[in-house]
Design brief:
Rossmann fold, 7-stranded parallel beta sheet, two-stranded parallel sheet, 13 helices, about 45% helix, disordered N terminus
């Protein structure tokens, strides 16, 4: 039952979510130095997990990883080092968060995007399938693959993520599992979060570009202000990944893929809505915003993502609406100039606040 997954208290902390299923578990997070991975490892530390990370890069000031974690370095698409890391750490749960995530980068270097996302996923799933200690794997997808009605919109990034979903299906197949000689089939799930915001400096990220423009004293420029996306704070996305992994740990899930979309009160929000909401939360509500392509640009560009199956099967629902999400983002970017320690404290405070609200929301939903 969903209520069993989260514990029965009406209030709680990050450590009390998921009924203690992460306490003492060995969890490998790929992409642990990246945007989503940095939040995931810090939350897992609060849950009492023993965490290892696998990433090409080292820990950086703008993506602090929580706690004393064991780190492995290497190319995610190189199967040898990935398998060696799993042999050394012997994880029980794998969260595959690594990959190329910037849409514009896919157009500049399609081969690199396909290699990171498709070959990287195959390398992780192949190593996990052959590692007896691994009980379950969660791979992250994207709502971008929902834009398949128009082939012109299927650029390298969504195409690579569509291939990732096919890769998951191939490795989850019973004959693949049997051929690997597993005594018990590996439980593989695909989590499809919304478009996450929450503190990131990557080029082409909406709020990172906004903060850079402010820092340079320049107007904020948005090319498609009317485009609608399923915006959510990164903690809503990470909570979906953690929820699915906790469910898979308990037993096979009814579905292979789950959408973890945004709160209904955030649905239908455009790029313009997010930018103006963030500017107000950041303390510069009157900052000039340029729309060189016109205010209606992108009005027909709409991607939405629900969460009905996740709610029905896993008891999950989003916790923060857009106002809470942009307020948390503003706090992160305000803390950034103070360095890693300030960012770490901000992240820990936000995880604790989110976890308290999630415990209340999920427990209430389970009792309803």
């Amino acid at each position: 039952m969903p209520g069993d997954l989260y514990g029965g208290s009406s209030r709680g902390t990050a450590a009390e979510l998921y009924g203690g299923r992460y306490a003492g578990r060995r969890v490998l997070v790929t992409g642990h130095t990246g945007f989503v991975g940095a939040w995931a490892v810090r939350w897992l530390g609060a849950l009492g997990a023993e965490v290892a990370g696998y990433s090409r890069g080292q820990r950086t000031a703008d993506a602090p990883a929580g706690g004393a974690i064991r780190a492995f370095a290497g190319d995610i698409a190189d199967g040898g080092p990935v398998a060696a890391a799993m042999d050394a750490f012997r994880p029980e749960i794998v969260l595959h968060l690594a990959g190329s995530t910037v849409v514009a980068a896919g157009f500049r270097d399609p081969a690199a995007t396909f290699r990171a996302n498709v070959a990287g996923t195959a390398a992780v799933l192949d190593a996990a399938t052959r590692q007896p200690s691994v009980r379950c794997v969660v791979v992250t997808g994207t709502p971008a693959v929902m834009r398949l009605g128009d082939d012109l919109q299927l650029g390298p990034y969504p195409a690579s993520k569509l291939a990732v979903e096919a890769c998951v299906a191939g490795y989850a197949h019973a004959r693949t599992q049997q051929a690997a000689g597993r005594a018990e089939p590996l439980r593989i799930g695909l989590a499809r979060p919304g478009v996450m915001i929450g503190g990131d400096w990557a080029e082409g990220r909406l709020l990172a570009d906004v903060v850079r423009a402010i820092g340079h004293g320049q107007p904020v420029t948005i090319g498609a202000p009317g485009a609608v996306r399923p915006w959510q704070h990164v903690l809503d996305g990470v909570s979906g990944v953690l929820t699915l992994a906790a469910g898979l740990w308990a037993g096979p899930a009814p579905r292979r893929r789950y959408d973890f979309g945004c709160a209904k009160r955030a649905a239908g929000m455009s790029v313009r809505d997010v930018v103006h909401g963030f500017l107000a939360a950041y303390g510069v509500p009157g900052w000039p915003v340029r729309t060189p392509n016109g205010e209606t640009a992108g009005a027909q560009d709409r991607v939405e993502l629900g969460y009905d199956a996740a709610r029905a099967d896993l008891g999950w629902r989003p916790v923060w609406g857009l106002s809470s999400a942009v307020a948390a983002c503003a706090a992160w970017y305000r803390a950034a100039p103070a360095g890693t320690a300030a960012l770490a404290a901000t992240m820990e405070d936000q995880i604790a606040a989110y976890a308290t609200q999630a415990t209340e929301a999920w427990a209430g939903a389970a009792a309803a």
